[in-house]
Amino acid sequence: MLAIMLGPPGSGKGTQAAKLSQEKSLVHLSTGDILRNAVKDGTQLGLKAKTYMDSGELVPDDLILGLIKDRLKAGGTKGFLFDGFPRTIPQAEGLDRMLTEIGSRVRLVLDLDVSDSEVVKRLSGRYFCPSCQATYNYPNKLPRREGICDKCNVPLSKRKDDSEEVVKNRLKVYKEQTQPLQDYYKRKGLLKTVDGERTIDAIFADMALQLDRTI
Ligand code: AP5
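^ Those are the sequences you sent over. The predicted structure of the assembly is below.
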């Protein structure tokens, strides 16, 4: 099973992928999380990716395809749920080539439909714990003590790319480079558009049903 979560920044890809992968025993593979960890650990990949990420630009395709190839080679799983990958047509074509080599293919693309104004609202309210990575959202998911992680008792941080200016650029980059993937997967009959402006539970139920129909 190989499914993809598509959608603009802040549309809820990570939130839904975490729940779905647990429920359906799939490996949640988030290129954003892999890159943020690489930046935090100061690896070669992190050093190369940081400037792109901080400004809301995409990391070059060859770096991303390299890290996906390594993960696919490791195998040993019932399936993958990709979150934030592919993000360009060359990445989608590269993924198709890699999957053909191992006798596999993309089975489903879940596309979260969320307006720009909702994206801006969600990302301006997003905070995370730098210690355990738990996320919070004002006003939807508040910590018990303002600005402090419930579990670790440390002050919450904001992602650098969640500043107003960078979010604007992330949306622009999404429209120019990622949105064309909707047509790419529609032509293959794999695209399912999901209304992403409902409760997290309602969206989850919808997506879980789509996965059940595909598995
Ligand atoms: P990445 O981490 O993938 O960022 P993104 O796609 O911009 O998505 P986000 O993580 O911001 O949002 P999300 O859709 O996961 O939403 P979330 O669930 O968190 O990438 C970051 C950067 O890395 C890129 O800009 C690029 O530089 C680089 N990169 C990554 N992958 C790459 C690739 N393949 N190629 C090249 N470069 C790459 O939700 C957002 C907020 O909304 C949360 O606070 C959440 O609690 C809240 N929320 C979620 N659902 C709901 C709901 N239904 N109602 C109300 N609030 C909600």
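The chain has a mean pLDDT of 95. The beta strands are 2-6, 27-30, 80-83, 108-113, 126-128, 135-137, 191-195.

Shout if you want it in another format.
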